[in-house]
Each structure stands twice: as C-alpha cells, then as structure tokens.
Here is the input.
Amino acid sequence: MRDRLLIYGANGYTGELIARLAASKGLSPILAGRDGEAVARLAGSLGFAHRAFSLTDPAPVDAGLEGVAVVLHCAGPFSRTAGPMVEACLRNGAHYLDITGEVDIFEANAARDGPARAAGVMVLSGAGLDVTPTDCLAAHLKRRLPGATHLALGLDAAPWVSRGTVKTLIETFHLGMARQDGRLVIEPIGHRTRTIDIGRGPVRAISVPWGDVSSAYHSTGIPNIEVYVATPGGVGAVFGLARRLSSVLARPPVQRALQAIAGRLARPGPTEAQRRGGSMLIWGEARDGARTVTSRLRLPEGYNLTALVALEMAGRALRGDVKPGYQTPSSAYGADLILAIPGCTRSDEGERPA
Ligand SMILES: NC(=O)c1ccc[n+]([C@@H]2O[C@H](COP(=O)([O-])OP(=O)(O)OC[C@H]3O[C@@H](n4cnc5c(N)ncnc54)[C@H](OP(=O)(O)O)[C@@H]3O)[C@@H](O)[C@H]2O)c1
Here is the structure.
C-alpha cells in the first residue's frame, strides 16, 4: 500500500527545516537522501524512518519509493536531481512535489504533463517561497482582472540565502528571462527596470529570471509576464556585475570554480533568530489595456515560509487532494492557498485606469 510521505534531500538545510516542521506537526515522513549517515542521524533525532539512495540509477530510486504515495523533493540544484526523481515517481505512481525555483525545471516538468496524467500522478513544482506566494498572487490578480494581458510581480531581495540557493543561483542568475506574447525570452539579467511599491514606498527594481515567468503562464494564461526584485544598496551592484560578466559566468570552468567556492564559503543558511525575525513583501500588478489592478502579500521569512507551504501541499496530497498532470501551486490548490499559511495576509488596491 502506498501511503507514506518521503522527503528527499532531507539532510539539506531546507529539507531539514521541513523535516523538523513535520515532527512539530506530529507527521511521520520517511527521510531520504544520498548521504545515508546524515539522513540516519537526522531521522534518528526525530524518530522517523529513513532510506539512503542516490539518483544516478533507476533501480535504487524505485526501491526507495516503495510504499510512498507522495515525494517532497528538496535536493537541489534541481538541474541535477529533478529529472530522475520525476521519472521515478511516474514509474511508481507517487505524486511529486518539489521546491525548485528554476525556470528550466518548471518547463521540463510542464512537458511531462501528458505522461503524468496517463500515470494518474501529480507533478507540482515550486512548492516554496519561489513560487508559491507569487503564483497565488498571480492567480488572484487573474481572478480580479480575467482579461489581463500583462502581469508584473515583484519581491524583496532576500537578506540571506542558503548554500544550496547560492549554488542554484550560480547556475541560473547570469541570464534574465521574461514571457512575451506567450513565449519565454532570454535577455540580460536586469534588462528591465521600473519603480514599484512592494508595500513600503517606491523602490527601484530590476527584472530577474524568477520561476513565475514559466509557472504563472501555466496558472493564468497571461501572455506577458515580468518578475522584479527590489534592489536597495549593494544588491543592484551585484546584479550589474552578473550582467556585465554573464558570458564569462556561463563558462563551465568558471561555473565549477564558483560552485567549489560556494561549497566552501557559503553558510548553510540563515540562523533560527534570522528566520524568526524576518518577513517579506510581495507585489503584483495585472493590466488589460484599460484597467490596472494591484495586490500585495505580507509573508513570514522565506525559508520558514518554504517549509510551511511545502508541508501544507504535501499534506494535502497525502490526504488524496491531488490533480493528476503538471500543476503549479495555484492550479492545484487555488489562489487562496497562501492565506491558509500562518502569518500570510493579502491586500488589494482599488482598480485604476491602465
Ligand atoms: N523555492 C524556494 O523558495 C526554495 C527555498 C529553499 C531552497 N530552495 C532550493 O532547494 C535546493 C536545496 O536548498 P538547500 O538550502 O536545502 O541546499 P543544501 O543545504 O545545499 O542541501 C542540498 C540537498 O540536496 C542534496 N543534493 C544535491 N545534489 C544532489 C544530487 N545530485 N543527488 C542527490 N542529492 C543531491 C544534498 O545532498 P548531499 O548532502 O548528499 O550533497 C542535500 O541533501 C536548492 O536548489 C535551493 O535553491 C528553493
């Protein structure tokens, strides 16, 4: 019988946060990862079962998914891990959720919609800060303005990121992306700039390849999508440097060197005190040529939020609340999913002319 939740990559910074939250909620997931010792240590401390397997060959992954109804995949960069885990879920009839924010992974998983439907399996990407709140806000804006043709989303730059996030950003953040007339376009990072008010007055913001340029299109069908990050102080300078050096940063030897540096120097992630004291604002705007609507979200700190939303969706999936095929957070669980998370609130501005 398949009735268990398996958290893969549980010994990583974010996987461990999710495992600890699961323990505090009285859940009993199986913890898994390729580092058997680290996974066993964590599972032992929480009283959970554990399994050790890597993703390099299909047979051990199939064995690792025995009895598993839902996989919450937390091992990234997902460019190296998502494909084998999704394929294993399709082979074994387990629902798949991940916490990726990588546009290529959203697109690759969207392309598996047909096989996922045929297998009766849900493949849901973006069950973290990137992209659950922005995706829910996009769906809410679409609900407010059903004929919207343009969507812009904006968020604060995170004050701290985990080692795994740094490694993922090294792979993805030298190129920008937006959605134009329904197609993904690649452009320099920070190619678009505008002033936005994410909830504490106007700030300068630049465009980034946040996952919504893929996922919000699947959630809303809005053909033009841009995502901005506010760039106070030195943040803009970092993006400016990435933009100027983009062709150098993409070279494999440079990528390898940066990954090694991140592995040695980046901190595992924010401390508990930093997470407890943190909060985030998110802004979204949709327009249809005649009207513009704006809404905002106020959220807990990003890694705590990731743990909360990932476990919320995994729990729903475990209770049988699933939609087979490729799903985004809002296509599976609706625009108001984010309001089910403690500490999340939404506000709407009145409609105004475009
Ligand atoms: N969507 C969001 O908002 C959000 C939030 C948080 C994190 N993330 C993403 O989640 C990922 C993990 O972040 P983190 O902070 O937890 O990183 P981390 O602390 O470095 O942990 C990474 C985890 O992934 C595993 N892993 C990495 N490569 C693997 C591979 N090829 N095969 C099997 N396992 C592999 C690691 O296993 P080993 O210990 O054996 O290396 C470890 O368990 C990153 O991609 C990050 O960007 C997204």
About this structure: The first helix runs from residue 13 to 24. The pocket of NAP is lined by residues 9, 11-15, 33-35, 54-55, 74-78, 80-81, 99, 101, 128-130, 162-165, 168, 268-269, 303, 306 (CB under 6 Å). Residues 70 and 173 are 30 Å apart (CA to CA).
